[in-house]
Amino acid sequence: MSNLVGFDLDYTPDLSVHKYEKGNYLLCHDDDIKDDAFMHGRIIAFIIYLVDEDWSKDDGGALELFNINSQSHPDEISLSITPKWNTIAFFALSPTSYHQVSEVISSTKIRYSISGWFHGPLNTRLSRAEFIAPVPEVFDLKDFISPVYLNEKNKQRILKKLQKDSYILLSKFLRDDVFDKLITSIRETGWEEKPTGPPFIRKYHLLKDSEIDNFKDNNNNNNNIKDYKDSSSSSFCKYVYDFFKSKSFAIFINEISNWQITAVAREFRQFQPGNYTLIHDQGQDRIGADVTLFCIEGEWDEKWGGGTHYVADEHELLAIYPEKNMLSIVIRDAGTLRFVKYVNSHAAFPKTEMSFIYWDDDDDKGEEEGDEEVEDIEGGVEDIEGGVEDIEGGVEDIEGVEDIEGIEDIEEEVEKIEEIEEGEG
Ligand SMILES: O=C(O)CCC(=O)C(=O)O
Ligand SMILES: [Fe+2]
Questions:
Q1: CA-proximal residue: ligand 1, atom 1 (nearest)
Q2: Any idea which ligand is nearest the CA of 30?
Q3: Stretch 289-317: mean pLDDT, rounded?
Q4: If DSSP codes are grouped into helix, strand and coil, which group holds residue 414?
Q5: Which DSSP letter does residue 141 get?
Q6: How far apart are CA 1 and CA 86, in angstroms?
Q7: What 3-state DSSP class applies to 59?
Q8: Atom of ligand 1 at shortest distance to CA of 113?
Q9: Contact 307, 323 (CB under 8 A)
Q10: 187 or 299, which is more confident
């Protein structure tokens, strides 16, 4: 069944036997049941009919499928299926998979059936990305990251900030020359015309399949990666995108978070006006480090929407607005959900981002006490007080969030270091 429909399905379906006699019917319903987090649920309904071989339309008991009107309500019967001996009917479930069984008319024949549902995951955290082990080191951090973030003292500052607040925003993360080339190369990159869905979960544009295939073909070819470095075309995106899944970057993450990265998922995506994700965009089963590089062309106006919001127990914990060449790192607790708010029609340019989730193989991360590891965001955000208005393009003014001292310190540090470097040079 999984091969037929192309969805991941659990191996054990629900199964029951039904008997409809003259006068029996089943009124319109959708069969659509999902778990609370909207992560898992019924995916496929199936019915195996065990009726007499001479069962005909006039005997009634048809399975009738509805189409929907503009309010998504069942409208008219679009398909009527007459039960047939030893035949299986199946269909995908959704909030609009309305169907019914019409009244059995025959007074002699009995409509027996075996029917049930296949369950499975509704979506994965990143729609197409798979978690893969970081690829062996082939990159030099200095080729990408602004020198200020490679300084040992600053790495310690970032670690402290992450331990305290569970998130950090690193401005001017990539070297200027690298980021400029990246923006140029993004302009050359093709995005899927049709947004990814389903629309009750997400709507945004992914890189064209052909571009992704290119990425795959070249992933493990070191020579090619070196070639991209000097490329000005879309290949330069590959070069940067691949860097983030490398062992060398995983080691950097380890140094600033104490996490041992064993897996990374990635997605290169673009939110155009009208695009968004809803809160069941991701699993809440495991703690992960969300790392996002904002590849936008200019200054983002919060009025355009498009913020990345973190919520738990219906409370907003954090909102991050895109900033050109900013890297955000959020240590997300199991149970904390992330969504990207609707980008409205005022947006002057799309919100393009490279989005990564890093995993540590330690499942209990964040629940351990008294060690050096970074606490989960839920625990971390509680002890934050005050406002954040003075942080440009940073975190929305959420009740109970204090100044992000760490970032200002680091920014000051950047300036100091730049001065020193200029002095020396
Ligand atoms: O028996 C059928 O054709 C459909 C049954 C059904 O919709 C159900 O049991 O939920
Ligand atoms: Fe049903």
A1: 47
A2: 2
A3: 93
A4: helix
A5: G
A6: 17
A7: helix
A8: 1
A9: no
A10: 299
Helix-, strand-, coil-residue percentages of the chain, each rounded to 5: 25, 30, 45
Most ligand 1 atoms within 8 A of CB, residue of 16, 19, 26 to mutate: 26
In the prediction, which pLDDT does 122 show?
74
pLDDT in tens, 204-261: 998 876 666 565 544 444 445 556 666 656 778 888 988 998 999 999 999 999 998 9
No. of helices (H) and no. of strands (E), the chain: 9, 19
- CATH fold group of domain 2-121: Jelly Rolls (2.60.120)
Is the pLDDT at 272 greater than 90? The verdict is: yes
Who contacts 91 (Cβ-Cβ below 8 Å, separation ≥6)?
44, 45, 65, 97, 99
Any ligand 1 atom below 6 A from CB of 325: no
Half-sphere exposure (Cβ direction) of 34: Cα atoms closer than 13 Å = 13
pLDDT, one tens digit per residue, over 338-374 is: 899 999 999 999 999 999 989 886 655 544 433 444 4
Domain ranges (residues) in the chain:
2-121, 141-424
Q: Is 192 in the pocket of ligand 1 (CB under 6 A)?
A: no
- Is the confidence at residue 84, as pLDDT, over 70? yes
Question: What does the mean pLDDT of the chain come to?
Answer: 80
> Which value, to the nearest 10 degrees, does the dihedral of the CA atoms of residues 243, 247, 252, 258 take?
140
How far, in Å, is the centroid of ligand 2 from the Cα of 37?
22
Q: Mean pLDDT over residues 8-18, rounded?
A: 94
Q: Is the peptide bond before 95 cis (omega within 30 degrees of 0)?
A: no
Confidence grade of residue 73 (pLDDT, cut at 50, 70, 90)? confident
Q: Do domains 2-121 and 141-424 have the same CATH topology?
A: yes
Interatomic CA distance for residues 39 and 371, integer angstroms: 32
**Site to substitute for ligand 1 among 18, 51, 97, 111, most atoms within 8 A of C-beta:** 18
Contact 3, 79 (CB under 8 A): no
CATH number for the region 141-424 comes to: 2.60.120.620
Tokens in use for 414?
């950047």
Taking CA atoms only, the protein residue closest to ligand 1 atom 3 is 63
